[in-house]
Amino acid sequence: MNLIYVLLIIGVVLVFWVISTYNFFVSSKTRVGAAIQEIGNQLKRQAELIPNLESSAKGYLTHEKEIFNELTAARKAISSAVSSGNVNKMADAGKMLSDVLPKIQVVVESNPEIKGAEVVKDLMDQLRDTSDKVMYARRLMIDLTADYNVKLVTVPSSLVAGLFHFEKLKGFETPEDGAEMKVTGEEMKTPKVKL
Amino acid sequence: MKNIYEVQSANKIRTAVIVAGFVVFVFLAVYILTNAFGYYMGYQPGGLGYFGMAFIVSGISSFFSYYYSDKIVLGISGARRANPQEDRLFTQVAENLSIGAGIPKPKLYVIEDSAPNAFATGRDPEHAVICVTTGLLSKLDRTELEGVMAHEISHIRNYDIRLMSVVSVMVGLVALLGDWFLRVRFFGGGRNRDSDSGSLGAIMIIVGIIFAILSPIIAQLIQLAISRRREFTADAGSVGITRQPQGLISALEKIASDTEPLEAANKATAHLYIVNPFKKSSNKAVATFAGLFNTHPPIPERIKALKSMA
Lengths: 195, 310
Description:
Number of strands of chain A: 0
Membrane topology (chain A): Single-pass membrane protein
Subcellular location (chain A): Membrane
Distance between the termini of chain B: 9 Å
Order of helices and strands of chain A: HHHHHHH
CATH architecture of the domain at 70-160 and 228-307 in chain B: 2-Layer Sandwich
Keywords (chain A): Membrane, Transmembrane, Transmembrane helix
CATH topology of chain A: de novo design (two linked rop proteins)
CATH superfamily of the domain at 70-160 and 228-307 in chain B: Metalloproteases ("zincins"), catalytic domain
Organism (chain A): Candidatus Woesebacteria bacterium GW2011_GWB1_44_11
Distance between the termini of chain A: 85 Å
Family (chain A): Belongs to the LemA family.
Oligomer: heterodimer
Structural class of chain A: mainly alpha
Low-confidence stretches of chain B: 190-196
């Protein structure tokens, strides 16, 4: 009689555990989806900031046509990536923009007249902020994916995952051709800084 | 060298151990006190009993302080709402970190005080409040501010305010029971003292007195130990969000080297802040003993833990 009760309790606990683990996987998946949308959202915000930057800084940056062309290209790439909803395209487009930003920074730093302008200062600040936002949105997605994938392969939650056929989430695709594991001779040298 | 994941899970386990020990201790103390009470009075009341009464009183008071914690604390410390234009860095950092942590953006408040400090409160991430002093905003750079804010956001994300409220209900419970027991010992005469069940009753009463005196202190010490453990956890969580231990390390160093006490803080709100707002000049000999009564671990120890993650 006692044994039946013990078994019953164990059974109930087990069922609750399976349900909560199942819910973890399902809700994690949804949250990763939301995190991807958040990345798109932040990239869009960034893209919308660029026309402002262009119009207010154009007067100062007349000689830097090339930078503006790159900015426009980055903006187009971002809008098309966001509308496609593909994480990796979003990441690439975001990278295009973050490659242009240091160039603007160099121009601003080397030109005291521009550097002093309140508008430009303000915009540089906004740009740093918006790229931070994109970075944190990506961080969230990476963290959520990692949590999910860890539970997927560790015992005992892996048993539930196997039962309901949950699959590994990809996250960001990074090139894994082995090049990132190698150190070139160039990288071994201590960088020299000339002042 | 430990990575942040190991630190975080180690912190979780240690908190669980302390909390479990705390719950066991509270149950033991409550059991002994209610029994001794019963022996002393010569009868056990029906219904809720002494335990129930103490639980209700302690529960109600703590529930109010928990449910309205944000309003109470903000009222006491005289904080004003942050202005997105004026406190732009603060607002931006808060927005960015809440994106990274995956929580809604907390309400932001500023205390006009030149001593650098910060705290978080509110019962859950939807009602969270982060409050910083103007001193903190002016003395820290962006990376350091991110470290401090991420520490506060970890408190919110870990439901530390909820945990500490539950703990304080239990501390209040033990304290009340102990207090009541001692009161009736002095003022109320036990009715059936002669018809007591002999030596067992006498022993129970003596043990009860000892528990009535000691257990509120012990319960409070465990509460403080939990609080210190949560600080370490929030530090690790901060690194988990920013991945820049150096930011929080140099922020803590800056805050620690600042000798100005925070005027807006008082004893009731001290445990909320990122570092102890009173900054007692520490005498090494009594430091270890005094450490038991601290809500926060010493800053050098926190920095050491952070450096091991760097």
